[in-house]
Amino acid sequence: MNTRTVYAAYKAKKLSMQLASVIFIAVSLSACATGQKDYDPRFTHSIQNNKALDHWQKKYVHNKNKRENVIGYAKALVKTRQEDRALDILQHAYQKSPKDQVLASEFGRIAVTAGENDLAKQLLNQASQNQKADWKIISAKGVLAARAGKNKTAIKLFKQALRLSPSQGSILNNLGLAYAVTGNYKQSEKYLKQALWDARYTRQVRQNLAMVYAMQGKIREAETIALSPLPKKYARAAHPVKTKFKTKVDRAKKK
User: Fold this and answer.
1) φ, ψ for residue 62 (rounded to 5)?
2) What is this structure's pTM?
């Protein structure tokens, strides 16, 4: 085994170790209305999230009993990585309205994001009782199943959610990761590449796709997807999934 092969194996192992921290998405982000045709989330999310937090905090302080304000403020806190505070806000509201299934759904999905799996399971089960199938709840249950090592169940749930919302980047990302954990990298790449069309999750998906490449020892592909500039067409918000995404490496192989 030559030096280059040893180094490639080392990098593959180092990147693949990150699979334990792959990014499953439990909370759906709202499309950002910036008014820009070619909006790049890498440079605008931080500013927008802080503005949203300020907006919803004011609304929440003005009326803490209005469900819209509670949920809006909690989501804004999650986007600024204040999950514990978001859970406190939701817990307070839920204690006042324990039969509110919409609140239970939002509380449950944010609990998934915060890693409170037992709480999330209880809330999501309540939210889905006697209700029309909701892809957000189903996908969140899929994340819980994946965390519990029930990968076949997770894939089944993600596919069910995808049938209800075919172009959702969060579901495509989750399904791709579930396949990666089972070692089905072909299917994993397929869904992660499709997920890149949803600009709300591009950063997470690129990281996950790079790790899937690394798991297979495809170091060059991993570096390309992780480090190359993001094409403008993938920075436009929420494209329907109509075509299969091709990386620069994929295109180069066909030439």
Assistant:
1) -70, -40
2) 0.73
Give the span between the Cα atoms of 153 and 178, in whole angstroms: 10
What residue spans define the domains of the chain?
43-131, 151-249
State both tokens at 130. 């006697």
Judged against a pLDDT cut of 60, whether residue 10 lies above it is answered with: no
Q: How far apart are CA 128 and CA 105, in angstroms?
A: 8
Q: For domain 151-249, give the CATH number.
A: 1.25.40.10
What are the tens digits of pLDDT across the range 83-92? 999 999 999 9
Mark 121-154 as b/e (b = at least 16 C-beta within 10 Å).
Answer: bebbebbbeeeeebbbbbbbbbbbbbeeeebebb
Q: How far is CA 244 from its chain centroid?
A: 19
| 126-181 pLDDT tens trace | 999 977 889 999 999 999 999 999 999 999 999 999 999 998 999 999 999 999 99
Query: Into which CATH architecture does domain 43-131 fall?
Result: Alpha Horseshoe (1.25)
Q: In the predicted model, is pLDDT for residue 232 greater than 60?
A: no
Domains 43-131 and 151-249 share a fold: yes
The token pair at 202 is 């591009």
Residue 176 CA to residue 187 CA, distance in Å, equals 7
